[in-house]
Amino acid sequence: MKIGLVDIDGFGKKKKWGGTVYPNLALCKIARWHRQQGDDVDWAVPMLHYDRVYMSKVFNFSPDDRTIYNADEIIRGGTGYDIESHLPEEIDRLQPDYSIYPQIPKDTAYGFLTRGCPNKCPWCVVPRKEGMIRPYMDVDEIAIEGRTKLVLMDNNILAAGDYAVEQLQKIIHRGYAVDFNQALDARLVDDHFALLLANVRWCDHNRIRFGCDTPRQIGDCEKAIHLLERHGFKGEFFLYTMIGGKSDFKESFHRVNYWWKRLQKTRNGGGGLPVYAYAQPYRDPYNVRHIIPEWQKDLARWCNKRQLFATISFADFEPRKGFRCSEYFKIY
Fold first, then answer.
1. SS3 category, 323
2. In terms of C-beta density within 10 A (0-12 exposed, 13-18 middle, 19 or more buried), how is residue 90 classed?
3. 21 secondary structure, DSSP code
4. What are phi and psi of 175, to 5 degrees?
5. Beta bridge partners of 275
C-alpha cells in the first residue's frame, strides 16, 4: 500500500494559528505500523495517488487542510476532529517513527508515561477522552534509539502516585534529561516529590513547569518552589497561567502580575530563582468559533515575551500604535 500523511497542525511551522511545535505522535506511530507491514509511507502531496491518506488534527482551532488528495480512502482522526477518536491498540503501543520528522534532533524522544487526569479543568478534554490517571508506558520504552532527551507529555504525572515515584527514580538513575511539557501539578508536590524533582536532569534552561490557573494555585506554586529550592534545585520555573474563561480581567491580571512583581524582585537582587509566567488565553474546547477577547491576547503578548515581561509593566505595554494597556484598567 502507498500511505500518505497530513499533519493538520503543522509541526515546525510558524505558530500563527496556535499550532503545535511538537511532532504528531499518532502519525509517527501510524508510519511505523505501516512500514512494519511493508507499506510505502510519506507526507501526502496532491499530485500523487495513495491507497490511504491519514489526516491528523490535535487542536479544533487549527484550520483544516482543504487540499483535494487523490486517495482511495481518507481517514481523519485526532482530538481536533473527534474527541472520542483513538488509535487502535496495536498501533498505539508502538514507538514513534521519528524519521518522518527529520528536523527532530537525534537525541530527542517524545511520549507519555501516563494517560488521563483526575482533574476536570473546563478548558481540557483529557478526562473525557482518556479517563482517570493510569500507567501507560515505561520511560525506557520512550528512550529508544539512544535518545536520552525526553519530552514527556503527561497531563498530570504526579497524580499517578507510586508509579510516578518509580518513573522519576528510573529517570534519575538512567540520567535522562526530561521536560514534562504539559506542566506538573504544584498541589501534589510534597517533600518526597520535591527531593526527586530536584535531582532530575531537566531540559532547556534547567526548567520545571507548573500550572497556575487559579488564585489559590499561587500559594501552591510558591510552596512547591520553596521545597525544590530547599532540596537544591538551581534552575528556573515556567508557569502556565490560564486567563479568561471563568476568570475575568481583574483576576487574570492579578495572577499574572503577581509573578511579574516576583520576577522584578528576583532581578533586583531580592533572591530566589527566576519564575516566568506564560499566559494562555482560554479556548472553549467544544466551540471552534470561540472568540478570544483582545485583553487576553494583549496580556499574553506581554507576558509571553520574556524581554517585555522582564522589563516593563503591563500598564506600560503598547501592543499597538496609540494604545497602551493601562486603558484596560479604566474599562474593567
1. strand
2. exposed
3. S
4. 80, 20
5. 237
Helix/strand/coil for 255? helix
Question: Closest by alpha carbon to 29, among 107, 88, 97?
Answer: 97
Contact in structure between 117 and 128 (CB atoms under 8 Å): no
In 3D space, the residue among 98, 77, 99 whose CA is nearest the CA of residue 88 turns out to be 77
Sign for the CA dihedral angle at 10, 107, 208, 159 comes to positive
Closest to 30 measured CA to CA, from 54, 46, 61, 65 = 54
Give yes or no for a contact between 306 and 276, defined as CB atoms under 8 angstroms apart.
Answer: yes
pLDDT tier, 13 (very low <50, low <70, confident <90, very high otherwise):
low
Q: Where are the beta strands (DSSP E) in the chain?
A: 2-7, 40-43, 49-50, 52-56, 70-71, 74-77, 108-111, 114-115, 134-135, 149-152, 177-180, 201-202, 207-211, 236-243, 275-281
* pLDDT of 18 strictly over 80: no
pLDDT at 141: 97
3-state secondary structure of 53: strand
Q: What is the pLDDT of residue 270?
A: 85
216-230 and 191-198 are packed helices; what angle lies between their axes, rounded to 10 degrees? 60
Closest CA to 281 of 258, 308, 302, 309: 302
d(CA 305, CA 318): 13
Q: What is the pTM of this model?
A: 0.92
* pLDDT one-digit tens code per residue, 47-72: 999 999 999 999 888 888 999 999 99
Phi first, then psi, for residue 134 (nearest 5°) are: -160, 150
What CA–CA distance (Å, rounded) separates 278 from 263? 13
Name the DSSP letter for residue 68.
-
The C-alpha cell that represents 173 in the structure block: 538513575
Strand partners, 150: 109, 178
What pLDDT, in 10s, does the model give residues 161-200?
999 999 999 999 999 999 999 999 999 999 999 999 999 9
**Whole-angstrom distance, CA of residue 116 vs CA of residue 137:** 13
Strand partners, 77: 56
